[in-house]
TrEMBL record:
SUPFAM superfamilies: Triger factor/SurA peptide-binding domain-like (SSF109998). InterPro entries: PrsA_foldase (IPR050245), Trigger_fact/SurA_dom_sf (IPR027304). The lineage of its organism: Bacteria, Candidatus Dojkabacteria. This is peptidylprolyl isomerase. It comes from the Bacteria. It is an enzyme of class 5 (isomerase).
Amino acid sequence: MKKTKTKKSTAKTKRTCPLILKFKKPSFQKVVSNKLFKVFLTILGALFMFILVDFFFQYLNNGYSIAVIDGARISKKAYHKRLEAQYGQSTTKQLIDEKIILLEAEKNSVSASEEEVQARLDDIITSVGGQESYQAALLANGITEKDLKTQIELDILATKILEPTLEYDDDDIKKFFDQYSNVIFPTETAQLEEGEKLDYEQYREKTKEVFIQQEVENSKYSWLEGLFQEYKIQDNSTSTPKYGVLTATVNIFRNLFDEANKNELEE
């Protein structure tokens, strides 16, 4: 009996492939070379430059102007010129006085510590009614705490220099207390019953401190006027500046020589 062989089917089954869509990427070079794109970039660049120029002119207006009214500016130069004409001489005089005090303090080996300045500042804050009132007072007077501390330091230096030259006794302090105790100690005075008075002995030291400050302030003007004769002062706010041969160099060597002598004496 013959075996029948089954024939393998040679027909291959067909597989279905998914449809793949291919997109052609735009050429960057073609986009850049496009005339419309070039025009767009040109307009954008010009707009950006225009904005920068506008900001620059705003900076000039604000940086070099004290005020701008509808685009019309008032220059800081005009502002400073007006201030100089009205207050220049007095301000220069004040700055000269302050510099002389510093020079005299250096000559007399006098200094004001940070603790002394802070203690005086704390007294001021208490006297005006606390921190909030103090900040409002600074704002109202247009000064900073740094400016105030500088003035306090100058007052302390002047007091240390001039106090040894003052002539007074306890009777002078007592009279000062009797006359101004309500001003020096307003809070304590307000708490008194009618007819009561503050105890002088209790407030003597503080009264003495205020009395000395007042006396120093009264004598400071004549003291500084006398020192004007000792220092070579060139006030360019009232006179034409003077020039001399090697004047600056001579001043530098003179200051170095004085500093060397001072260090030698301290040693």
